[in-house]
Amino acid sequence: MRLSGRHIDCIRGGRRVFSGLDFDAASGEALAVVGPNGSGKTSLLRLIAGLVIPSGGSVALEGGDAELTLPEQSHYLGHRDALKPALSVHENLAFWRDFLGGAIGDLAQSLAAVGLAHATHLPAAYLSAGQRRRLSIARLLVVRRPVWLLDEPTSALDTAGQDLFVGVMRGHLAGGGIIVTATHAPLGIETRELRMGGGK
Amino acid sequence: MTALAALIRRDIKIALRVGGGALIGVLFFLTVTVLMPFAIGPDLALLTRLGPAILWLGALLASLLTLDRLFTADHEDGSLDLIVMGRAPLELACAAKALAHWLAAGVPLIVATPVLGLLLNLDATATSAVALTLLVGTPALTFTGMIGAALAVTLHRGGLLLAVLVLPLSIPVLIFGVAASQAAITGPLSFGTPFSILCALSLVSLVVGPFAAAASLRHGLD
Questions:
Q1: pTM for the whole thing?
Q2: Sequential DSSP letters for chain B
Q3: pLDDT band at residue A199 under the 50/70/90 scheme
Q4: Which pLDDT belongs to residue A198?
Q5: Which residues of chain A have a CB within 8 Å of the CB of B9?
Q6: In this prediction, what percent of chain A has a pLDDT beyond 70?
Q7: Is the CB of B6 less than 8 angstroms away from the CB of A95?
């Protein structure tokens, strides 16, 4: 499997964010998108997720499921956690498991893997920022998608949470997955760097 | 199918919990209808004549009140991004959200109608006529309102824009809804004619609404 982008141009709000961008990521590889604030890291991730339409160029996944589009084979972990405060931890995760569909894992196991097994029936409104992030990460585990698009995934996580997330990402890469992540801090896994802005 | 059922279940659950929209709509409907007899005065004949129009106006405004949260809540917490990326077609996901909204916020209005009919001096026939027209008419309000709700997300303007966009679309529903109820109460028109048009309006909006809303969401998320 290979995720590649060719000559991508991105214009948002009338401003050229980046142009002529090329990138490649193969199975088992993590691509770290680095660069100063406003250099288009989030835009690139949202573009791969199909949420921003490129003004030029294209992104393609070779060797994936031919029946599905790239966004349908991707997980997007953005700044916002996509959690409903009125629903419990269990209900939030169960909803995304049922809605996203495809190959699914065990819900209780996923919650245990991110250290939330004790809080399954707590409303999400009472979770701390770090716990909310952990619950979002559990979403990546409960539904299997080959491509993970992670935007600042370790923000709000404590050291234990970061170590745990390194394990989660290692597991995904070992299973032949692809990770594209926007980050400022070193993630603790082997990554290839894609430098945005400044350098060009 | 599980995806859509999950979406409907989740939206209804959120609407029925504390802070959800279901209760707000019914309370608003109740307030408008209860206040109306005090404003108009104790003229029973006049109340009977105005009753269906008052109930319809109350239901229309109550459904507008809660509709603007249909997509903005999901947009603000990032759920909408994942819904757009999901494997369920976006059109069907929009239809599922509208259906959930109607079940949680529209059906209670219809259930409340017989009680409120008493306050407006409507007899059993008149009340059931209004309830029946609301039953077939409120889906049209929800599904056309959904278009405005989707545009409100992508144009980053809240409820005001929704009211401006949706009101013209809901005027035909209001006209034929009230006309059908009046026909059942006083005649001379037959009940069937305006009622059939009302059903047609609902069916058209069931088809057009999800496509228009999905198109708006797909091109406007940035």
A1: 0.90
A2: -HHHHHHHHHHHHHHHSTT-SHHHHHHHHHHHHHHHHHHH-S-HHHHHHHHHHHHHHHHHHHHHHHHTHHHHHHHHTTHHHHHHHSSS-HHHHHHHHHHHHIIIIIHHHHHHHHHHHHHTT--HHHHHHHHHHHHHHHHHHHHHHHHHHHHHHHTT--HHHHHHHHHHHHHHHHHHHHHHHHHHHH-SS-SHHHHHHHHHHHHHHHHHHHHHHHHHHHHH--
A3: very low
A4: 55
A5: 95
A6: 98
A7: yes
The tally of domains found in chain B comes to: 1
| Token pair in block for residue A43 | 């835009």
H helix or E strand, kind and range, residue A166:
helix A159-174
pLDDT tens-digit series, residues B172-206: 999 999 999 888 887 777 888 889 999 999 999 99
Please name the residue of chain A whose CA is at the shortest distance from the CA of residue B219: A53
ipTM score assigned to the predicted complex = 0.90
Strand order in the sheet with A178-182: A74-77, A147-151, A178-182, A30-34, A192-195
Average pLDDT over residues B131-153: 90
Q: Which domains does chain A have, with CATH numbers?
A: 2-81+140-194 (3.40.50.300)
Average pLDDT over residues B19-46: 85
| A19, A9 contact by CB (below 8 A) | yes
Q: Cβ–Cβ of A87/B13 closer than 8 Å?
A: yes
* Residues spanned by the domain of B80: 2-220
